[in-house]
Specification:
This protein is mainly beta. The chain has no helices and 4 strands. 0% of the residues lie in helices and 26% in strands.
């Protein structure tokens, strides 16, 4: 097993639905996840598909679910020290 860390620069202007898709390259099976930034909620959205489409011929398998759904939301500043009103503080506050 490698301990290598890979950094990916996420670029978004807040208007598009760009995301980073991550998959596990290992004998253990795991669904892919997609991560995108939600500028309205100021945090990261983790999405997962319920079923993946395996057909590569262009024919859509009716059993597959190509829709991705949010499974987690992570505040952008979730670990920052909190202010007196219990809201997360942003850098420099």
């Amino acid at each position: 097993m490698s301990d290598a860390t890979q950094y990916v620069q996420y670029r978004s202007d807040g208007e598009d639905e760009s995301y980073v898709q991550i998959y596990l390259s290992h004998v253990r099976a795991a669904d892919d996840i997609r991560i995108r930034y939600d500028f309205d909620r100021d945090g990261w959205v983790v999405e997962q598909a319920s079923v993946f489409e395996w057909d590569t011929t262009g024919i859509v398998d009716p059993v597959c679910d190509p829709e991705w759904a949010e499974v987690a939301f992570i505040l952008a500043w979730g670990r920052a020290k909190k202010k007196d009103d219990d809201t997360p503080a942003k850098d420099g506050e």
